[in-house]
Amino acid sequence: MYQLKKINKSAIPRSLLKVEQYRLLNEPIEAESICRDILEIEPEHQEALIKMILTLTDQFSKGISSDEVFQYIEKLKKPYEKAYYTGIAYERKAKATLIKGLMDHKHDAFEWFVDALKAYEKADELSSNENNDAILRWNACIRTIEKFKLTERPSQLMDRLHLPLE
Fold first, then answer.
1. CATH number for the domain formed by residue range(s) 1-76
2. Of 3, 57, 123, 129, which is the most buried if we count CB atoms within 10 A?
3. 164 falls in which pLDDT band (50, 70, 90)?
4. Which segments within the chain are labelled E, that is strand?
5. All residues at 6 or more sequence positions from 148 whose CB lies less than 8 Å from its CB, including other chains
6. Is 78 in a helix, a strand, or coil?
7. What ranges do the domains of the chain cover?
C-alpha cells in the first residue's frame, strides 16, 4: 500500500512557512500534517512543536479535541513557553466548550478558563517586562468569563455528581 514519505531537513524552514499559511487559511488539518512531517525527522524542533500545539488547538473549535496537545507542550524546553502554551490549550478548550453549548457547558468552560488563568499567571512570572503576552491572554479570559457570566459549578450539583451508585 502507500506509505508516508519523509521530508528533507533542509526543507524545514520552508515547511514551517507553509504551516503558517495553512493556519491563516483556517486549514489546521493541513498545517498539522506538515508539523507531523517536520517532527518525524526532528522530534524536538521547538518552532515545529509550537506550531503543532497551535494547529491542534485551532481544531478545538471545530469539535476536534485531543489531549495529545499536552504531550507536545511537555517537549517544550523553556518554562515560559510551557506555561504560556498550556494556557493557550486550556483557553481554547474553554472557548470550544462555549461554542458546543452542551449541558453544563458554562461551568465546564469556567473550569478550563481557571486552568488557563493559572498557566498564564505562571507564564507572566517567567516573562520579561517587554513580553506581556500572558497578561493579554489573562485579560481576554477574564473578559470572556464576564461576557458569558461564567461561574463555578454550584456545590449542590457537585455533591450530586459524587453520590455513590447503589
1. 1.25.40
2. 123
3. low
4. none
5. 98, 106, 109
6. coil
7. 1-76, 78-166
